[in-house]
Amino acid sequence: MERTFIGDLSIANSRVRVCGWVQEIRRLKNILFIILRDSTGLCQLTIKGDMIEPWMDQIQRESVLCAEGENIKDGISKAGREVSVTSLELLNGARSPLPLAPFDPVKADIETRLNNRFLDLRRKDHLAIFRIKSSLLYGIRKFLHSQNFIEVQTPKVVASATEGGADLFAVKYFESNAYLNQSPQLYKEILISAGFERVFEVGPAFRAEKHNTTRHLNEFTSVDIEMGFSDHNDAMAVLEQAVSAGIANVLAERSLDLTAVGKAISLQKTPFPRISFSECCDILSGQGQDHNVEEDFSPEELKIIGDRFEGFYFITGWPSSLRPFYTMPDQKDPQFTNSFDLQYREKEITSGAQRVHDPELLKERFLAKGLNPEDFDFYIKAFEYGMPPHAGWGHPVIGLERLTMILLDLQNIRETSLFPRDRTRIKP
RNA sequence: GCCUCGGUAGUGUAGCGGCCUAUCAUACGGGCCUGUCGAGCCCGUGACACGGGUUCAAAUCCCGUCCGAGGCGCCA
Fold it and tell me: ipTM of the assembly?
């Protein structure tokens, strides 16, 4: 008999076969109730009197089984859906005790949850995070496609011989040493020279930073774009629209999951507010916190700045000392750059900028950052044979996981990664 | 890398020198109960991360190891 999804149970099908996981068992003298869960919902299985066999008393929670029986029209169960069982088949039992009981009233630590993620994700509010994340990304993808961006895949194993900023994970590559890429930056720029004009990439990025916070991961999903014949203002416009498109898609597709997570989100109108780095410094001075222009804002300072905004906003015009070599200096004042960060209150989401496209200036910038241009010959070469002015953005810190975290107001980035990689965790 | 805090039954916790052969909840096992639905009631099983030290006495204090959490820093 064909399986019916629990969510599809209706009066129309009175004989049904449902399959799923055992969420609860309630045993009375002459009646046995099993709350069965599949990906679409819950229903109650009712097994009466003679139908109860001894093995049924041994069924453990979270076991997988199928039941056939009559779909009761007016379910007496408060679960709404109820099947009066005529045959029950255990497909695969679950061991007891469970290392993590997803449906116990007691909440488990994040560590216990991550160690037993396959059980943790059986909760619909935990699964919902990933449905929302998927929907968010789909909305961003659809938007970028509509703007003629080409989705690309660039190498994650790279030969970068230097350590400019973030630490890289070293890997053996046959006879050579290689690294896991921390950003598709160099490759997406090369593709601009190649004439792609507009590219985007969604892929893993790796940072070997020994940070230990609730907002960093060592492996995350970066969403990056690069666009030719464009400047930082063009890139900001694409970014705010892409983020909005993602959120709009979540609102359109995932209202039930938002309810499950218990978070109401709304669409912020574009354009998002812009504030310059210098203006931020003025705000801090006004609060008696003079800020050194050579330094990034501390979490505390970002809180002060973020408090002035409802949600998303851009901080523009960052000092060149705080920005990577490929960032275009501001022609009016080269101490600053044509750059921006997208912020949500005190949290940084995305960094972007107009890029340097002149190979001579690029070499200068390498030297100014203490890097050897020769180590980047494959990259600079692409600038010497017709590189258009270009701009783009990407995720210097976290990316898709952080955006999901911010959107759902989650307290730990690890909630948004199925199998997070952090300072100490590489399993599961 | 720095700082702070912590590791007690399957899970989450109380206890913080002798009252601990360790609390409570939940889970698990058994019993009662034809309809429960956070089921209820009764009974039961189950734990002090590891090693060393102080003390008449250590879950409790000290040292080390391992594991973890949070904050800061780092974060082409």
Answer: 0.88
